Amino acid sequence: SAAFMFTSSEPVFYVLRFLLGVAEAGFFPGIILYLTSWYPAKRRAKIITTFMSAIPVSAILGNPLSGWIMDGFHQVNGLSGWQWMFL
User: What is the pTM of this model?
Assistant: First the structure.
Protein backbone atom coordinates (compact mmCIF):
# COMPACT_ATOMS: atom_id res chain seq x y z
CA SER A 1 0.00 0.00 0.00
CA ALA A 2 2.99 2.33 0.27
CA ALA A 3 2.96 2.60 -3.54
CA PHE A 4 -0.22 4.68 -3.24
CA MET A 5 1.88 7.52 -1.89
CA PHE A 6 3.62 7.92 -5.24
CA THR A 7 0.53 7.96 -7.45
CA SER A 8 -0.24 11.19 -9.25
CA SER A 9 -3.37 10.26 -11.19
CA GLU A 10 -6.71 8.77 -10.32
CA PRO A 11 -6.61 5.81 -12.77
CA VAL A 12 -3.25 4.64 -11.39
CA PHE A 13 -4.68 4.88 -7.87
CA TYR A 14 -7.64 2.68 -8.85
CA VAL A 15 -5.44 0.09 -10.55
CA LEU A 16 -3.17 -0.13 -7.50
CA ARG A 17 -6.18 -0.37 -5.20
CA PHE A 18 -7.57 -3.23 -7.28
CA LEU A 19 -4.24 -5.07 -7.19
CA LEU A 20 -4.00 -4.60 -3.43
CA GLY A 21 -7.51 -6.01 -3.05
CA VAL A 22 -6.55 -9.05 -5.12
CA ALA A 23 -3.44 -9.58 -2.99
CA GLU A 24 -5.34 -9.22 0.30
CA ALA A 25 -8.38 -11.29 -0.68
CA GLY A 26 -7.17 -14.45 1.02
CA PHE A 27 -5.94 -12.82 4.22
CA PHE A 28 -9.13 -13.04 6.26
CA PRO A 29 -10.08 -16.64 5.41
CA GLY A 30 -6.44 -17.64 5.84
CA ILE A 31 -6.27 -16.17 9.33
CA ILE A 32 -9.51 -17.89 10.30
CA LEU A 33 -8.12 -21.18 8.97
CA TYR A 34 -4.91 -20.77 10.98
CA LEU A 35 -6.80 -19.84 14.14
CA THR A 36 -9.00 -22.92 13.84
CA SER A 37 -6.00 -25.17 13.41
CA TRP A 38 -3.77 -23.58 16.07
CA TYR A 39 -6.29 -23.44 18.92
CA PRO A 40 -8.45 -26.23 20.36
CA ALA A 41 -12.22 -26.08 19.92
CA LYS A 42 -12.66 -25.10 23.56
CA ARG A 43 -10.75 -21.80 23.09
CA ARG A 44 -11.60 -21.17 19.44
CA ALA A 45 -14.61 -18.88 19.98
CA LYS A 46 -12.68 -16.53 22.27
CA ILE A 47 -9.69 -16.36 19.93
CA ILE A 48 -11.79 -15.64 16.84
CA THR A 49 -13.82 -13.06 18.79
CA THR A 50 -10.60 -11.30 19.79
CA PHE A 51 -9.45 -11.26 16.17
CA MET A 52 -12.83 -10.02 14.92
CA SER A 53 -12.98 -7.26 17.54
CA ALA A 54 -9.77 -5.78 16.14
CA ILE A 55 -11.71 -4.50 13.11
CA PRO A 56 -13.99 -2.04 15.00
CA VAL A 57 -11.22 -1.11 17.43
CA SER A 58 -8.96 -0.16 14.53
CA ALA A 59 -11.76 1.99 13.09
CA ILE A 60 -12.27 3.76 16.42
CA LEU A 61 -8.56 4.52 16.79
CA GLY A 62 -7.64 4.87 13.12
CA ASN A 63 -10.25 7.37 11.95
CA PRO A 64 -9.20 10.24 14.25
CA LEU A 65 -5.55 9.43 13.59
CA SER A 66 -6.17 9.53 9.84
CA GLY A 67 -7.85 12.93 10.11
CA TRP A 68 -4.95 14.27 12.14
CA ILE A 69 -2.42 12.99 9.60
CA MET A 70 -4.35 14.45 6.66
CA ASP A 71 -4.72 17.87 8.32
CA GLY A 72 -1.35 18.09 10.01
CA PHE A 73 0.86 16.85 7.20
CA HIS A 74 -0.86 18.47 4.20
CA GLN A 75 1.79 19.87 1.82
CA VAL A 76 4.70 18.78 4.01
CA ASN A 77 7.62 17.87 1.73
CA GLY A 78 5.38 18.44 -1.29
CA LEU A 79 2.95 15.63 -0.48
CA SER A 80 -0.79 16.00 0.01
CA GLY A 81 -2.41 14.86 3.22
CA TRP A 82 -3.90 11.76 1.58
CA GLN A 83 -0.45 10.70 0.35
CA TRP A 84 0.89 10.77 3.89
CA MET A 85 -1.79 8.23 4.82
CA PHE A 86 0.04 5.57 2.82
CA LEU A 87 3.54 6.23 4.11
Answer: 0.61
